[in-house]
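Researcher: Let's continue the batch. This sequence belongs to Cysteine--tRNA ligase, and it's 470 residues. Same format as the previous ones, please.
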Amino acid sequence: MIKIYNTLSREKEAFQPIETGKVKMYVCGPTVYNYIHIGNSRSTVAFDTVRRYFEYRGYEVEYVSNFTDVDDKIIRAAKEMKITPAEVADTFIKAFEEDTQALGVKTATLHPRVMDNIPDIISFIDVLVEKGYAYAVDGDVYYRTEKFERYGKLSDQSIKDLKIGASERLEDEETKKKENPIDFALWKSAKADEISWDSPWGKGRPGWHIECSVMATKYLGDTIDIHGGGHDLTFPHHENEIAQSEAKTGKTFANYWMHNGFVTLGDDGEKMSKSLGNFILVHDILKELDPQILRFLLATSHYRRPIKFGDKAVEEARINFEKIKHAYSNASYRLNDAVESAEDDQAIVANFTALEAKFVQEMDDDFQADNAMSVIYLYAKEMNLYTERSIVSEAVLKQAMALLANMMAVFGITFEEEGMLDDDIQALIDERTQARLDRNFGRSDDIRDYLKEQGIILDDTPQGTRWRRA
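Model: Same format as before. Here are the structure tokens for Cysteine--tRNA ligase:
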């Protein structure tokens, strides 16, 4: 049984879906005014991995992740770029899709956009006003936080403490309009030269928090199984989503709340900060780093723990990725001379399936990716030991490869077949083999060096020479 650490209860809980065999999952998506940075990609990859594991375990996952395409940052970017906010959003939604596809992220079941859901947002706010949970002031609409029982339950904060924290903002012009300094905006009145829509309260645009409440409930229902996002969204964004949604529907908004950890920069773990200007864009990283290695780094750490992104971490990910890929490639190579079956096939396969069961045990425990990877490293070692045998079974190799591929697919890692030995490479390897038999080691070394320059690494094994890409 899968267990999930629920931020709301602050403990691990057995996962019980609303509908047997199905998972309804909403994950907060990016505000599309720029390329995504490494922190954004951590959240995207973390919840893609969670989704993939549910599917690995046989669940049907309905996965919704929004695009915030109406925001102060988008409006500012539009002015700077001299295009419309919609064009800014279109540009960076396309960039998001390119970057995340490179990282092996599955396309969401649905990627709703705020601009396409304005009528639903207005209707949602209107219900909150009618119920007394919201009030209008000069074209703005605010949520009445003190009316919602247990506001602060997700972030474990009390209204009293929040009011004390907000006291320093009492002189702020917007705060003066509110009944309570911790009330938050549902609808913002239009400013000159800014995108806006007609509403019962005048021209304006939605606040950030209401957007996700509307799109989550519209596309997944009043109560969803899992709501995910970065740890920094716990308060106020997710806290406000709960208040809005549950006030409108009278039902639990999400049964499980999941939050991923931060990404820090460098081997010393420096926190990313806009004020420091040290955000690293995935768009730039992928110009220099194999996307699969970045995916491996992001996906194979436990989602709730912070990740250090630096040279040391990248190199460690590259080495571990190559170890697993090499084990798979070794098995693929041995298919060339494998026998159909052998007497000990059943015992060997039982060993591999037992390791897969251990992998499932670790992932069932709140998606413990790092522990699951330790199992996979052992699995790769066992595969290598088997492929070193003089006689190997085709049946065992194929099953071992399939199990490894399935486990690694949970982390978004695939093994691309490179065409075991094309004619040109094979001809050079054959020539090198003959040169060694003739003790013409100079020619043998020349061929090895030439292939190395082409990115081809040769491995001399008892079963013959094989190659792999560097």
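Researcher: Any comment?
Model: The longest strand covers residues 224-230.
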